[in-house]
Structures are given as C-alpha cells and as structure tokens.
Amino acid sequence: MTTPTPRVDGRTARSERTRNAIVDAHVSLITDGDMRPTADRIAKLAGVSLRALWSHFADMEALMTASAQRILERRDAAHQPISADLPLAERIEAYCNQRAKLNDLVAPAARASALKEPFSPALQRYRKLHMERARDEVATLFAAEIDGDQELLNTITVVSMWNTWDTLRTPMELSTEAAAAILRRTVSALLSAER
Known about the structure:
Layout: H1 10-31, H2 39-46, H3 50-56, H4 60-78, H5 88-116, H6 121-141, H7 143-146, H8 150-160, H9 162-169, H10 176-192
C-alpha cells in the first residue's frame, strides 16, 4: 500500500515561491556588488510589490537573516570534505584550495554583511557560526599536527577566514592564485614550525 502524497495548499506554495524570490533577489543584488540593496530594488528584481516583501519579512534584519542562511547553504553545497588520512602536504593543498574557493564565493555577501553586522545580532550569530565551523574543520583535518594546541588552532583559523582573505584580495590586489599561495605558505609554516 502506498502512502498518498500530501497536498500542498496553493496559497502556501505561492507564498513560499514569493519568499524564495525575495531572498534570491536580495542575494543576487549583493553578489552583483550592491552592498546596500534597498527594499525597492529587491522587490523589483523579485517581481513582487513592496507590500509583498514586507508581508514576508518584518524588517531588513529578517531578510538579512534569511539571506545569510541561503549564502551558508550555498557555501555548504560547494564544500568538499577532505580526508584527514591524506599526507600533510596534500591536506594543506586541498584545504587551502578549498578555502580560496569558498572565501571568493562568500566575498560579496561578507562585504555587504560587514556594513550591517555591528547593528545586526543575526549577522553576528551567522559570522560566529561560520567561524566555529571553519575552526572545527581545521581541528579535525589537522588534529595530529595541532595536538591540542589551541593557539595554533586559532591562528590557522584566523589566517583562513574571509577577513584575512579580503586583505590579500582587495587592498593588496592579489589574484586568487597568489592569495592561495600565501595561505598555503602560512598554513604549511604554522604546521611544520617547532613548538
């Protein structure tokens, strides 16, 4: 006997499509370099009225929260687990290449978030969550080399995060490849240094 597929109410489905269109428009504007998209621009790109936008999101903070979640989902979809069983040099190479890719992926959203984060508890939570996830990855991937050294763990985490990456890419104007080479060199030096 098969279980019948639950019916989705048409209004609920429409509401979800509208909500997704608004979030997609917001993320798209940020990704395209609009660091402070207005509600008007978001609604226009989403193809909805301002009234519809505000009926789905109480304020810009709520929209930023939904957009931050969407960006983390994209980051998660792009993330490829790296085996901790690989030789150290291969783990460093794979880790640094992936960090380069992910940091470039989140760069536009991170820049836009930086403008609002001091005033946004939701963005502060997402930044902390992102940092904790990156720190956990470093702790797992390089567990043998870190060997409980919290200072080393924190140092590798910091040099791998977007803020450091942005310094390399924006004011220093380095290419992704050049910035990744600096990250590899730094992580390699940290993991091979006498402690």
